[in-house]
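Why does residue order matter? Because the sequence determines the fold. Keep that principle in mind as you read this record.
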Amino acid sequence: MNASTFVSKRIFSLSKENLSSTVMRIAVASVALGIAIMLISIAIVIGFKNQIRDKVIGFVSPIHIESLNQNESIEEMPFLYDSVLKARLDHPFITAVHATANKAGIIKTENEIQAVILKGVDAEYDWDYIRENLVEGEIPQFIENERSNDIVLSRNISKKMQLNVGDAVRVWFVDTDMKARGRKFNVKGIYETGLTECDERFVYCDLNQVRRLNGWSDDQVGRLEINIKEGVEIPDANRLIYFSIPPELVSYTAMESYPQIFDWLELQDMNVVIIIALMLLVAGITIISMLLIIILEKTSTIGLLKSMGASNGLIRKIFLKRSGTILLIGMLIGNIVGIGLCLIQKYTNVISLSPESYYLSSVPIEMNWWYIIMLNIGTLLLWILMLLLPTMLINNIRPSKSIKFE
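Structure:
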């Protein structure tokens, strides 16, 4: 054991009832609180961004292709999904291509009326996302050359229209000649994603129904939804797809289709930066104040050590080692509290949210251990650098005056 460590353990103690011990306990609490709040903030924001991103991408796919036109209607302009286009989309990073089409309609019951968008999907459509969010019923089985009357609607729509699984419902459509046509459908399942923009509008049905309503051929579609491999950057993949498809088509990413949601998510990063900066500043000021008070209280001890031949560097090491110990104790407690609270929320969902405002029913938590490690290392280094400032006072303490301090 070297001299600085030995002296540090002898003259400092958290258990003693004096000013420096009280200040050190306050510093431990401040550091622990700061670390816990920073960890929780990062876990919540990462959870928010990833879960909402997955919801949006699960609903509209990472990339989709439409006709390039000035049509502002909800319904797309049709285009051929033939062998030529399939060959152009033969990229190694594409895992699946799904043909879909939208059709605006109105659900009408005896007491309620609701505008909806029928999203037609084919027999090869990937139902995994809707299946994960299915709350009642089951996923319909569509057949390639037949038209199914089964639909899957959201819980939001089912509550408004007072519909249950197994109920028959009539949906009305308006043709280009302003004539109304009605089609009878059967409720096969009910889903709930939490994305209000989608849950309030979309009803899943057979793509062949939309084709017949629009008068399209069997190889015409309104949109192609493209899934890509994990780890592939969506903007890079979209750029390659954009330049490989015919000029009359255009490709979009999910971020471009729902910019308001992703812009809102980007704002959360700024909130975390502000929280971390405030916590670093508050805890940093606390530990600097702690060290200043300890130096003032131990002025006579510093003078005595200097009179015995201790250098300024050795005395600074004594105080820095004790302050570093306080930091490590506080950071350990903060990590235990922060990670513990995150795990409780992650597995119990104690804190709930309003899906209408936050798109989620509970506070999301995602533990990224790399971020946690980097936060702890960066915070420790910053606080240690801040502690170097008050130790400069040790150079100005003279043994002849300080020994008489008491």
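The chain is about 50% helix and 20% strand.
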